[in-house]
């Protein structure tokens, strides 16, 4: 009997333990950080200076955070992978700015941290502030960089919807989602099925269109933790700029800032 009781309580402890771990992971969520551009000084409202970014990576390392690939988080959000470790963080950067190559990449290599780049192919090798295809390939070849979709030419879907006839708008949405996916998959020989909404703009119609185009998850820029309880096509991210240096950064990463509901544009 005594043996039975010991066994029973051991089992109970395991069950309760794993359940509370699961609950903790769910309640905790994961901060997904969204960067845009870097440089020695603040060039615009989207800049994080390179020394600030370096200090943030150092802070994550010193404070026991683990930077995990976005794919690991997405698999968990889809119920296809284990919960991320405690103190997990995801790093992303939108728009493939050339300073992602010159300033961000060397630091990611130094700290051995993975990143996902959300790219809109129409600007690659064409706009002078955007990386070339060769530079993106070089990023991918480090093994630290995952390239995913930011639509084809980064439209403002809200403005386009007002401007276009319903069928023209639907065609634009379809083309933006499928052309970007196909182009990046062809260039990089990998699956592209994660999306970042341009300007963080999305609605139910866009979410459905993204799912239909073959995306399994999409991200906006609302300041909350990514979590299985959020809709999979509208997962939040914390946008980081120089204004979010130190104090805000710590509050975002530790989930202390939690914006309610979708943003209005
Ligand atoms: Zn963008």
Word description of this protein:
This protein is of the alpha/beta class and 265 residues long. Helices cover 44% and strands 12% of the residues. The strands form 2 sheets. Strands 1, 2, 3, 4, 5 and 8 form a 6-stranded parallel sheet that branches. Strands 6-7 form a two-stranded parallel sheet. It starts with a helix and ends in a 12-residue tail after the last helix. The site of zinc ion (ZN) has 5 residues, from loops.
Features:
9 helices; TIM Barrel; alpha/beta; single chain; 265 residues; six-stranded parallel beta sheet; binds zinc ion
At a glance:
By secondary structure, the protein is α/β, with parallel strands linked by helices. 44% of the residues lie in helices and 12% in strands. The chain has one domain (29-253): TIM Barrel (Alpha-Beta Barrel).
């Amino acid at each position: 009997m005594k043996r039975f009781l010991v066994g029973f309580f051991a089992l109970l402890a395991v069950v309760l333990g794993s359940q509370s771990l699961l609950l903790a992971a769910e309640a905790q969520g994961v901060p997904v950080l969204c960067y845009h551009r870097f440089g020695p000084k603040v060039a615009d409202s989207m800049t994080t200076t390179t020394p600030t970014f370096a200090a943030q990576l150092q802070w994550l390392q010193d404070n026991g955070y683990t930077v995990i690939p976005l794919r690991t988080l997405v698999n968990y959000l889809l119920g296809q992978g284990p919960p991320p470790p405690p103190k997990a963080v995801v790093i992303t950067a939108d728009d493939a700015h050339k300073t992602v190559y010159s300033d961000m990449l060397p630091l990611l290599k130094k700290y051995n941290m993975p990143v996902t780049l959300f790219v809109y192919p129409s600007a690659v090798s064409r706009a002078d502030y955007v990386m070339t295809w060769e530079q993106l390939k070089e990023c991918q070849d480090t093994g630290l960089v995952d390239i995913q979709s930011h639509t084809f030419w980064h439209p403002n879907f809200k403005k386009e919807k007002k401007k276009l006839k319903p069928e023209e708008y639907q065609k634009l949405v379809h083309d933006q989602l499928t052309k970007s996916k196909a182009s990046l998959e062809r260039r990089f020989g990998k699956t592209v099925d994660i999306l970042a909404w341009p300007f963080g703009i999305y609605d139910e119609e866009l979410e459905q269109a993204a799912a239909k185009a073959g995306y399994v998850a999409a991200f906006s820029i609302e300041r909350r933790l990514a979590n299985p309880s959020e809709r999979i096509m509208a997962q939040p991210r914390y946008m980081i700029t120089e204004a979010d240096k130190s104090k805000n950064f710590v509050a975002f990463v530790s989930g202390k800032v939690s914006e309610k509901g979708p943003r209005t544009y």
